[in-house]
């Protein structure tokens, strides 16, 4: 069975990787789909192309995972790609309440099912927005994201990391 793991992945975190790795063991093929919305263009740290490359690099070791993007309704993508199951990771009860509403809507308008996978407890506090914030101050994000994301974040905030390193050396 082929499934879709959608998200903005700005950037992919260790929690995403945990959910993805476990999904890749349960299903024949997982397509990570970067959903992009032209109305949200200024809100992303990484461009669509950067996010796709980070995902390709982070998932290269998983042979049954591919990366794609789509700029419309997820149910339209699911119909176009002839896939019927969405994978969503959950960190907390608050995620569940939000995701449950979306799952019901997707099932009603697109006849697709959603499978929830709980992120491991150690990643329950990690979100892309928190990682971006920590990185913007030059903080250590190496445990919170895969190597591809850490490298991209350090490159994006190179001046901050260089300044922080210089202040430690003095």
TrEMBL record:
Site (Transition state stabilizer): 16
Pathway: Cofactor biosynthesis; coenzyme A biosynthesis; CoA from (R)-pantothenate: step 4/5
Domain spans labelled Cytidyltransferase-like: 4-133
Database matches in InterPro entries: Cyt_trans-like, PPAT, Rossmann-like_a/b/a_fold
Protein location: Cytoplasm
Required co-factors: Mg(2+)
Residues reported in the UniProt entry to bind substrate: 8, 40, 74, 88
GO molecular function: nucleotidyltransferase activity
EC number(s) reported in the record: 2.7.7.3
Catalytic activity: (R)-4'-phosphopantetheine + ATP + H(+) = 3'-dephospho-CoA + diphosphate
Matches recorded under HAMAP family: PPAT_bact (MF_00151)
The name this protein goes by in its record: Phosphopantetheine adenylyltransferase
Gene name of the encoded protein: coaD
């Amino acid at each position: 069975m082929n499934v879709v793991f959608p998200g903005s992945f700005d950037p992919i975190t260790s929690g995403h990787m945990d959910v993805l790795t476990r999904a890749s063991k349960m299903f024949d093929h997982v397509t990570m789909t970067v959903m992009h919305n032209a109305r949200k263009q200024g809100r992303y740290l990484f461009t669509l192309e950067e996010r796709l490359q980070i995902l390709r690099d982070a998932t290269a070791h998983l042979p049954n995972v591919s990366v794609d993007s789509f700029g419309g309704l997820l149910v339209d993508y699911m119909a176009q790609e002839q896939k019927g199951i969405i994978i969503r990771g959950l960190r907390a009860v608050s995620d569940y309440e939000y995701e449950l509403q979306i799952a019901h809507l997707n099932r009603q308008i697109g006849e697709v099912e959603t499978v929830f996978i709980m992120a491991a407890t150690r990643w329950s506090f990690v979100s892309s927005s928190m990682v971006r914030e920590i990185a913007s101050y030059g903080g250590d994000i190496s445990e919170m994201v895969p190597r591809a994301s850490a490298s991209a974040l350090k490159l994006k905030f190179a001046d901050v990391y260089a300044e922080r390193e210089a202040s430690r050396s003095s």
